[in-house]
């Protein structure tokens, strides 16, 4: 009963908070991009909340429980670098553009309504699938905790986030995302520390995982590579998977619409850089704790459904009060992602695909109608599509790595890409990934781990961009707009620069701290049991390399941020002007 009350109260609370945020909406800019005045903490909250959905708490932690906690850490070390990459090479220029949506930015950059429409269509289709996955995750959570039917949970979840998005738009999403970020951060840290301490600390968990025989190899960096249920057949295959999918998700964090669009709400470009570095730190800490916790659950019961393992721990192991916190935190993660995805889908429908409105009032009304229509379609699909949370979410996310990734990067840094190249790159990368993924899922083709569909479709997108751009010419409008994006505004305030560099230093220190922590608590502990359990030299060395790699990625991210964010000499203003603050 206590869990039912907590979940229902959280739904009511988020609805009320979102409704109160809606009082700040005075026009279309407020509704779509929160007036472009969000501070660092709010952008940090919405970035992390948009990324960590029920897929992370249920699916990815379940994969760690299944036997691959440290493979997931390899994945996380590479993927979180996309936070800084996105801000550095794309996000700050996106903020400078003054666009209301990312597809609108592509339309401006290439002076092409066609590019904007194609980007909008990929947003609606891809995020529609992503929304379906996280909605189902929230519905599963509701049914598990309350005992009510799955469909009741879906309807209540849908009514809550759709209700406050209709009224408040981006301000409501940003505020509720930040509150949810605080709740599920406390839940992740509190729940993980309790489980690890209950099992004897890190050394006790490592020893227990080495001792158990149900999933041999789970304590090693490569995870389970033996037995009929093993996902990988060798350490090399596990490493390639972690690095490959890490790079894919780095591109997702850098350019996907639900991540990069958060920067459009930032107060200035320094907020973009600060929030990106802090997001990398938050995700690094989350994965270091949650993946180890997922593996440790095996010491309680190795026969659970992986995607429900965290729910089982909250209900059966944690104290009631902490169980309530962690389950409402997981539920909040799913709800925050739902609200983010639905808002972006609705905004793209109204701003990028449908014909332009005659005035701001009609545009605002059209945006709300689009949100409602998209939400109803998502609800109907979720009700009739069998749940598969992690599979659906990971499939949908990779669509943007292959289609948006190349175009986003080249829109800023290539002088040769044309509107035709961008159009074909978006379409070929998206459709190619979709077809290849469906063929693999249907077992029509079998691809080795190093030839993931997203890699092949990215190469296809790059080829399409190169060919179409070679057959067309860059227009003066395209060249002028790219030049404008690279113009530096000398109004930067030294206080902002100083504050951002302090955050970069904190990011580097966080990388050192995580590396030292994993070195001492995992690698050294593993080495201490080497003789007792007959561990190979490669397994021990892998533990040390894991610690260095996980810490080193954050150290490198902070160092790059420190180097990039600095006062620069004034350069002449471009022909274009932007009313929004464009400090760099």
Compact description:
It is built from 24 helices and no strands.
Describe this structure in words.
The protein is mostly helical and 584 residues long. It is 76% helix and 0% strand. It contains 24 helices and no strands. It is globular, with a radius of gyration of 23 Å. Residues 490-494 and 569-584 have low confidence and may be disordered.
List the helices and strands and how they pair.
Elements: H1 2-21, H2 28-33, H3 40-51, H4 54-66, H5 69-79, H6 81-97, H7 102-109, H8 113-146, H9 150-168, H10 170-198, H11 201-211, H12 235-255, H13 257-260, H14 269-296, H15 309-316, H16 320-353, H17 360-384, H18 389-413, H19 419-441, H20 453-471, H21 476-485, H22 494-528, H23 530-533, H24 537-564
